[in-house]
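Please predict the structure of the following assembly.
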Amino acid sequence: MLSALRREMASCTLRMGAVASSNVVVAKRGLPARGTKPLPRNLWDQRDLQEQTGGEYTHQPLRVKRLGGRDADTGRKVNQHIGGGVKFDYFMIDFHRRGPTEEGATYDERILEVRRDPNRSAHIALVAGEKGKRWLLATESMRAGQIITTSGHLTENPLIGIEGNAYPLGSLAPGTMVNCVERYPTADSEVFVVKAGTAATIVRHQGDFVVVKLPHKHEFSLHRECMATVGRLSHADIEGKIFGSAQMHRRFGYKMSSGLFHKKDGYFGRKVRALPPVRVLDTPPEPAPPKQQFTLTKAQLSGLPAAAKMHNLMHAGYTHREYPQ
Amino acid sequence: MVFRKYKPVSQWGKQDTRIFKAILNARNARKMPVFRVPDAVKALGVKVHDPTLPGFFDSEFVQRTEKDHRDFSQSDVTAHPLYSDTPCRLFEGSEPMSDGVDQACVISKAVLRTEFPDEIMKNALEEIDEEKVRDAILHGERYDPTLEKLPRRFDPVLFWVKHPRVHGTPVVKRGNIILDNLFRHIIFSAIGKEKLKPTQIKFNRDEPFSTTVHSAPYFLQSPLVIRGQPHLTALSVTHTTPWASKEDVELTRDESIASIAPLSPLIDFGSDHIYNKESVVARPSENLSLHSIAWTREQSQKYPWTSEQNAANAVLYTFGAAMSEAMKRGEKSLAESPVVSRGIQLVNGRLDLVAVQVNTLDLSQKEEKKNIVWLHKGVRLYMTKPYFEQMTEVEELNMDAVTKLSALLLS
């Protein structure tokens, strides 16, 4: 749960591969200066969230610190054109819906409220059930008063899922549109498809794995026990909405991006590439090793090998010989 | 704002420094008499330690004092006199009931009536002076001279605007003044028309109450604690007559309580280890029975509750008050004369009028007789203005709400 919360903040769109944190500005609005894969946006302070909640889930609105595109460790900017604006209340989203694995048994919840969330693009839904209340990402047709169910049972024959309900991938028929797809069948894994108006499609079943086509057409082979919610995410018309003014843009924490004109180089332009082969996500990645803090001496910082590693004042006439009496 | 004719002088210069230094030097130069242990202390035989001696701070006396002093000890929740190993389910009116009144009815094992009985409505005051009611409202909204700093304003549309902080009467205090005035007007009118004896009802203000319910099916393992601090607690010299007759109570066996599936009725309760195991009521030593409680709720600017949630809040508080009275009397006494308590909640110019009749303390048996809740929810009393605006005259006054309130109080 803890690491899920930690990851939840940073993962708004698909990220692949390890992203090295650097002390120089490497990204613009979550996109790297080179390449196409989005980077962590560093919008909210995950540690502050962890401290406030103690790692427990809460449906209460929270006042989480905003990082303004800065690295949480060094405090330096890693993400350009992000920062400032109004601090909105933060709602924790539960991306991992788990239900009973027995056949026919479901965990039912009622939708109490569907509302906008300034912190993410899709609408969010407050649901209440036997175990309490939680916020979920709302699918297109979710309305207050509806009952949604969650089942963890892997059916023999694939089902045609009902929108808003959550099933294991292995239970859903090919062609089903899904969102909030777990990468691994663990409750702390990141999820695919959280952006407003998007959905992944189930392509085929292969033994213990299910091939899912994400909105950007890449295909992933995920374990069939990974949970997913049926339907397309709400607020699809966000693409057509505009902030209306530069000032409103800034209120939401985005800074203007105008500056010195740079001529486009060869990295720009349309890329016509073949889709990569299906990527199989079978084992969760190892957790990152704990961070170490140490200080290097000037000699170590020089990076020179043994003989060349001389004193930094040697050029200025510093010698090792003893001073005459 | 307080009107200031002159700005206070905030200058601080070298002359001030010179004067203050001179004062300090003079004070330091002043000789104090040598301290001698008073004879009275000597006579007590108390050991006196001299802190000017070397090694005083290493002495066992100082070490022990530091160890025992509460400022040096870690706060331990288990040391609290009201600490209990079993956590309770706590209702304090801070979290809205997700399923509204139905959920409150499930918790209190009650059937809901949305109209007051005709016999009760007959008790209402016929002629209520509208001007007096207007004045009662304006007393809280306009005439009260309180100048407290009011909360930060939040505008959901212009969410980025930082509004200037204004001073005035807090919303809860306004509402409490209005409730005070309405109660006084109704009670005095009833006394004048000989519907009520002058010594029949006694009032306590801002008296805390706490009720602990241990009944199955939900609160057997960990009890339900309902606690609050209503502005008005009315206590009656005699037991109030039940609203529903014995026959009506028997008929509740066949009625079903509203279903809130798939929600659990317990999801909105908090949890705490520190609570009163016994009920806390106003004037426990006097032989009085609880008549009614009245309080004001302030809506959150960002996340206002719905009228259902407000009504559920009123029902649960009134149920808690009624249960404390019923537990005082006991289950056997309930069979003869059930307990009726009334609750009045004022939220944003709307009244939630509740009456709860506790017919049984056993909340587990669904087939047995049930408690009864009469509820008028969200009855508009007057049209409020936002807390940062000044009301000059009462708009959309609804005298029907006052009539219902009088019927509730004089039943």
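Residues 1-23 of chain A have pLDDT under 50 and may be disordered. The longest strand of chain A covers residues 107-115.
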